[in-house]
Amino acid sequence: MPAKPDLLASITLLYVEDDPDIRVQMVKFLSRRIQHLVIAENGRDGLDKFLAHNPDIVVTDIMMPEMDGLQMAKAIREKNRDIPIVVMTAHNDDEYFIKSIDLGIDRYVLKPTNPKFLIEAVEKCAQLLVSKRQQEEANRYVRFLLDAQPNFLMVITGGYVEYINQAFLDFLGFSSVDHFRERVGNVGNLLFTAEGKNIDAEGCWLNLLVKNPERFPIIYLKSQLLENLVPFALKTNSLYEQDRHLFSFIDITYIENEKRQLETQAFTDALTGVCNRARLQGVLEGELHRSRRHNLPISIILGDIDHFKRVNDTYGHQVGDDVLKRFAKLLRENVRAEDIVARWGGEEFMVVSPLSDIKATGLLAEKLRRIIESETFSTVGKVTCSFGIAQARREDSIRTLTERADKALYKAKTNGRNRVENDA
Are 126 and 8 in contact (CB under 8 A)? Predict the structure, then answer.
């Protein structure tokens, strides 16, 4: 089969032969077909020239002084495990062939060497070499495209992390894929749900994400560089026949923040910063359900600022708003962390107090009454507040519970204001 000059012209070949007559003859033949030819006279010389010239293919005799062909091939393999090596030998010894197989020799040409067979062996190695280079170039281009993506990309093949693009590595705090593999034993340790639960706790993270992608439309990632978990929309593409999966993580931090801001705006009273009535309805419904299910007490406090209309009429609505803001702040600062403060409407505020019976809630309401009474409000001076309290009964709905608290508040108003009354 004739050689292809364009293919062989692109490679550098190291030819090692200790017999000067054979060497001269073969060099003359090879030099007509291979543009870059490096010549060595023995194994030691061949190894030195391999290190100096970094050839693409090695052709060597087996029996040589100082260092034989197999010894040289072994030393070369330690430096470059993938370089094609062709050996020329007159041996048919079984032990030699076993050693050759162990070294991964690519081609064998028997001596006396037929130049045609040798060039065919070299050409086949060159074809594989060129194909490999083309594949590597294609892979480099694919990696370039992946690295150019702003989304975080990860390729898993056979359960093994094959590739992570640069944007993802930068986020995670690793310098390379190898660095990532060294430090991260299990990718699942980086993946969390919105509740902060590690996905791998439910089983194999890979199977969960590949087989049930709809369960985890949003994944929270843990980075070495950030304390908080970061939300990402997850998209998965799989080549099942190759057991290869591409995961694309799209940063939705901005969307999540915007969502939280909208939720805050929707459920927070714009003036005072406490829960609004819409939010309170959901919270109170949930707490009542928990109270009935676990037979736990829950009480509410309904407070109304005394003579607030007089404040607005005397000082104006801007001052009245300042009083409401200060009043709400005092409530927030003087209840428990688990208590919920909400603006019920106008100058009325509610405190939902889970796990509190009527006695404990009465003490809390009295504490709040005294704090407000002792506070000096800007421009207005002293302000007082009346409170009505009620403990939930098993049959209570939101409406019936708040109606009883409202009746207690009305009692406090009619009994002279600036006092706490219950619904008894």
Answer: yes
**For residue 73, pLDDT beyond 80:** yes
Instruction: Write the pLDDT tens digit of every residue in 142-155.
Output: 666 666 677 888 88
Q: What is the mean pLDDT of residues 92-102?
A: 65
The residues annotated as belonging to the active site are 347
Segment (H or E) for 235: strand 230-239
DSSP structural state of residue 85? E
Q: Enumerate the β-bridge partners of residue 244.
A: 157, 239
| Domains of the chain and CATH, by start | 5-142 (3.40.50.2300), 152-255 (3.30.450.20), 268-422 (3.30.70.270)
Please report the pLDDT score of residue 2 as a whole number: 47
Q: Does residue 59 contact residue 118 with C-beta atoms inside 8 Å? A: yes
Q: Quick one: which of 111, 93, 121 has its CA closest to 34?
A: 121
Q: Which helix (H) or strand (E) holds 242?
A: none
User: Which tokens is 331 given?
Assistant: 């409530």
Q: Which residues pair with 126 in a beta bridge?
A: none
